[in-house]
Amino acid sequence: MKNTFFALAAFAFTAIISPAFAQNADKLNPGDALPAKDVKLKNTIGKDVTLASSMGKNGLVVMFSCNTCPFVIKNESMTKKTMQYASAHNVGMVIVNSNEAKRDGDDSYAEMTKYGMKQRYTVPYVADDNSKIADLFGANHTPEVFLFDKTGKLVYKGAMNDNPSDPTGYKVMYINDAIDAVVAGKEVTTKTTKSIGCSIKRKG
Question: Tens digits of per-residue pLDDT, 74-117?
Fold first, then answer.
């Protein structure tokens, strides 16, 4: 009886912690390959794109974002700077909206289209059905960026800069430094930073 109790307790404990371990195991780390690169994603201009087709000569930035998160709104100018910097250095970029729980509201496809037009996005702004891409990346916040080099290897993930709460006062633009490194064929010095922002609103 005693052994049965401990066995049941161990099973219950495992059941509780397993999702956390699974989530951590699914997170991309520097050196990992670009996942879901051929999955078709619906762009707000009505065309399907893939991460592979969005790759530039020198790599790809994947940004997880949305329409209404206060941190996204605070960093709208930083998003534009990142788009411009990536384009100037032949790095592709895709902005991904994974807020599936708000897909019938503020993060609907129609609202995404309006927001993308308002922001004058020059890169694909795509809907991530059921947060599948976010799950594969282990992305949890908006905004959060992932930079892959031209071989599709992850070289940086985290925040765009060192002051997401007040981007006007940033001192280090992490994503730009990482782009500079991949363009020069050098190793990225700061490979991971903490992304700060709203949680991605997954369904269920």
Answer: 999 999 999 999 999 999 999 999 999 999 999 999 999 999 99
Note the helical H segments in 55-202: 70-74, 76-88, 109-118, 132-137, 174-184
Sign of CA dihedral 55, 115, 117, 197: negative
Give dist(CA 33, CA 148) in Å, integer: 8
Q: Which of 86, 40, 82, 45 is nearest to 65 (CA)?
A: 82
Q: How is residue 85 written in tokens?
A: 């910097």
Residues 6 or more apart whose CB falls under 8 angstroms from that of 154 comprise: 28, 29, 30, 31, 32, 33, 34, 146, 147, 148
Rounded CA separation 154/61 (Å): 10
Domain ranges of the chain: 29-199
As a dihedral over the C-alpha atoms of residue 126, residue 129, residue 135, residue 136, rounded to 10 degrees, the angle is -70
Architecture of domain 29-199: 3-Layer(aba) Sandwich (3.40)
What element of type H or E holds 3? helix 2-26
Q: What is the pTM for the complete model shown?
A: 0.87
Contact 191, 30 (CB under 8 A): yes
Q: What is the DSSP letter of 119?
A: T
CA atoms within 13 A of residue 92's CA, in its CB half-sphere: 20
Instruction: Choose among 155, 1, 178: nearest CA to 82.
Output: 178
pLDDT per residue as tens digits for the range 141-169: 999 999 999 999 999 999 999 999 998 89
